[in-house]
Specification:
Elements lengths: L5 E7 L2 E8 L6 E5 L13 H4 L4 E5 L17 H15 L4 E6 L1 H12 L4 E7 L25 H8 L11 H8 L3 H17 L2 H5 L6 E6 L20 E5 L6 H4 L1 H15 L2
Parallel strand pairs: 3-4, 3-5, 5-6, 6-7, 7-8
Antiparallel strand pairs: 1-2, 2-4
Helix pairs in contact: 2-3, 4-5
Length: 269
């Protein structure tokens, strides 16, 4: 098998989108989509566990990571999904098992709606089904420049993104520090707008796509019991993960990777 590892920037409709590819190019593919206030590199702990047998594509959504941050751009969920689809088309990667963490799962849902030909199965990792499930406290940092925050202040702002007691690595602190506040604010408006229009189970049910929902039982951003809302989707599998919080892919990459690989073995294109 030909292995293609590396990073590239794609110019899509005048917008620069940064992507990472790991693993055998001719193997079944995963698309990994990060959540709000994150980037493609947030998946780094899990990539080595997937890329031995799969082609792993990660994307920095517009405004995040190393993708462009153009003034006046739309950060609507549908537009982020459109860009993800265009990136897969440009790379010639299809179909994929699309995996989204937190709000990344909302983009994955929009991608499956928009381009069902690209998605052979969807995995939502700690993605609430609707805004009624959202329980996170507002981050009290709006008047403060990111650059002025100490590492301890950033860890405090991030703490509900993980299980109680999880030691947040410096790499995650550095990633949070790189947030574009305007993009963060726009995304924070776009996600509720999408969910308020229709819940994720309502959107996913008619698509007839295999669905795996993973949820840390100690999530402090989305109510863990809300995962039951996905059981109305025909064929959905809901797995609750004891001892883990909002970010199983970061808190326990090995356990999360095992579940992703098992799902992909059953549903890869």
């Amino acid at each position: 098998m030909t292995v293609s590892n590396g990073e590239s920037t794609l110019l899509l409709d005048g917008e620069e989108i940064h992507v990472c590819q790991d693993g055998p190019r001719d193997a079944p593919a995963f698309l990994l989509v990060h959540g709000t206030a994150a980037a493609a590199r947030s998946w780094e702990p899990i990539v080595p566990l997937l890329s031995g047998s799969h082609h792993v594509v990660r994307i920095d959504l517009l405004g995040c990571g190393r993708s462009a941050r153009p003034a006046g751009a739309s950060y609507a969920v549908e537009d982020q999904a459109r860009r993800a689809a265009s990136a897969l088309d440009r790379l010639g990667v299809a179909p994929v098992v699309a995996v989204g963490h937190s709000s990344g799962g909302i983009v994955v849902t929009a991608l499956a709606e928009r381009r069902p030909d690209l998605v052979t199965g969807a995995v939502l990792v700690n993605t609430g089904p609707d805004m009624a499930a959202y329980i996170a406290k507002e981050i009290p940092l709006r008047e403060v420049s990111w650059a002025e925050l100490t590492d301890d202040q950033i860890r405090l702002a991030m703490t509900d993104g993980f299980a109680p007691g999880f030691v947040i690595p410096q790499a995650f602190v550095d990633q949070f520090r790189d947030i574009d506040f305007a993009v963060f604010a726009a995304t924070s408006q776009a996600v509720p707008a999408y969910l308020d229009e229709r819940s994720l189970p309502d959107r996913l049910a008619p698509l007839a796509k295999p669905l795996l929902v993973l949820f840390g039982e100690e999530d402090r951003r989305w109510r863990p019991s809300s995962a039951d809302g996905y059981r109305v989707v025909p064929g959905a599998t809901v797995r609750m993960l004891p001892g883990l919080g909002h970010s199983p892919n970061l808190e326990d990459p090995a356990r999360t990777a095992d579940l992703l690989l098992a799902f992909a073995a059953d549903h890869a294109g």
